[in-house]
Batch of 3 targets.
Target 1
Amino acid sequence: MAQIDDFFMRENRVEGITDSDYQNAHPYVEAAQAFAQTTYQSIYIIDYYKKNFLFVSDNALFLCGRTAEEVKQMGYGFYLNYVPEEEVPMLLELNRSGFRAFYDQPIEKRRLCMMSYDFHIENEGRKKLINHKITPLVMTNDGRVWLALCTISLSAHRDAGHIQMRMLGQSYYWEYSLDGHRWKQCDLIILKPEEKQVLALAARGNSIHDISEQMYRSVDTIKLYRRNLFEKLNVTSITEAVAFASNYGLL
């Protein structure tokens, strides 16, 4: 059975953090709190020195009926309690593979990395598929992650996995195969301006006819844009397309 320490790798062992360092980190917590007030997403901060959570927002998506303070006290125990047992090995594998890929990058580029993946949380027999993103927030002088910022939103997919690592400013990303246990480089999805506009208008609740009028295009043309979006994003509905584009920063 998995243990909390299984989530913390030797390669990212953080040492020497002082009370003064935590005082200096307080503005990051305040910024996370402010961010949480402006979004539907759940926000939390992982502390790799104390091996727990430094901050958990009270956005209900992630909490499984618990209070934010209760989840903060549980730390990684939350995953052992609320992630389906069959998906925990996936979390452990992507944690190991993610850190190894992260430390393959030059120190100056590590701050630009973000990893995204989907898994279920389960409460009272009900499962919810969420998208989880993690990026360095505060790093040590030797390039290890002390604090990491995590955001949680509803997944645009239908199953767990979809593990990706992205680096800001790059025209490609890396995707991890759970079957092959390796990363592969992929080209970023590029949306045309018209496709982005369809997504943005759909995200505001506009119908096809509304979008047609606002874009001065025929309904058939808007349907063509939608079909192209579905094919590019590998989704089957405009709701899934909007969620995918939001989760992966395509809008």
Note: Residues 4-187 form a domain with the Beta-Lactamase fold (CATH 3.30.450.20).
Target 2
Amino acid sequence: MAWSDLFAGIAFYLIIEGLFPFINPNAWRRGLSVMAQFEDQQLRNFGLGVVIAGLTLLYFVRG
């Protein structure tokens, strides 16, 4: 993997993360307030699920 691939991935992440509050700030704010109510274990499970989904997608895209 080249450094340019890593930086491209980070750039795409920042673009996608910035789209949500740009397009619908109220829904984004409500979503954050809901997540703030989660217990630590729920947040860990959610984070683990996102990591697994990302790794699975990366595996299929990059083979």
Note: The chain has one domain: 3-62.
Target 3
Amino acid sequence: MSLDPDPTQDSRFAVLTPRERDVMAYVALGKPNKIIAAELGVSQRTIEAHRARIFQKMQVRNAVELARCVLSP
């Protein structure tokens, strides 16, 4: 799954790890943690930790704000 935004669009994307970008794509599409964890072969707790770091790095408070950042032109 790849929903990789152009890092030049926003410097916040550049600080994400490749795995955080993977998780961010799923979150932006509205996938629940349980599904993301199953598809990536990790625990739900790992996804929760990734989400927390992504939200912090992207300076958003929730998945809706994250989706807006990722999916807006």
Note: The helical segments are 11-14, 18-28, 33-40, 44-58, 63-71.
